[in-house]
Amino acid sequence: MKPLLLLSIREDDDAADEEYAAFLRFGGLSEASLRRVRMEAAPLGALALDDYAGIVLGGGPFNASDPEDAKSAVQSRVERELADLLDVVVAQDIPFLGACYGIGVVGTHQGATVDRTFAEPIGCVPVTLTTAGREDPVFSALPDTFDAFVGHKEAISVLPRTAVVLASSPGCPVQAFRVGRNVYATQFHPELDVDGLCTRITTYRHHGYYDPPEHDALHAMARASVVVHPTSVVQRFVAVARGSRARRAVP
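-> structure tokens emitted (251 positions)
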């Protein structure tokens, strides 16, 4: 069975390793079945996409909507490489799941308006499926409304016609969308449980997501939250990706 590929952009080892462990755990994957490439560390290079059942793009401190002159050389390189990759992914409808930062990257690629209109502070929010979400093979396993962890400086305010909205929250109209049959992006974090969120609260204490004195209160908020449903998105995406690639392999 072909492995999946996790593309990571996190420079901080604690957060990067926690993210990888979360996708392994909630995807029901072994390290052999989820290969990781840390894009922030070195150029991506050529990928043999036929070697993978699907691709997952994790989150991180980059913002796709930042002015170009404010982006680091690493971020600019990563975003050029992701744009080139998405040219192929979207054209061939290769299974792809972008989490948080991924919604800005895929949205930008498709011509969405990505800005700071619908930013959400770190917290737990109710997310509601649209009709398309309730009928989607990845999202249909979720309740109509469920709680999820969020924390983002940018979001999509206008989606292009190529995208279908799958989920929304009171403060952010596009919490998830799909392009084609197999390209997904979420604003909420489908891979985050309480321990994972606490790791990131600490790791990104000085990255502008919150005032540092709020650190302990945010940990308490996370510990008091009951977030159990979003991780099924990871499990279902893995199943859909493997099924899609298996169908492609049939002559």
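The domain at 4-249 is CATH 3.40.50.880 (Rossmann fold).
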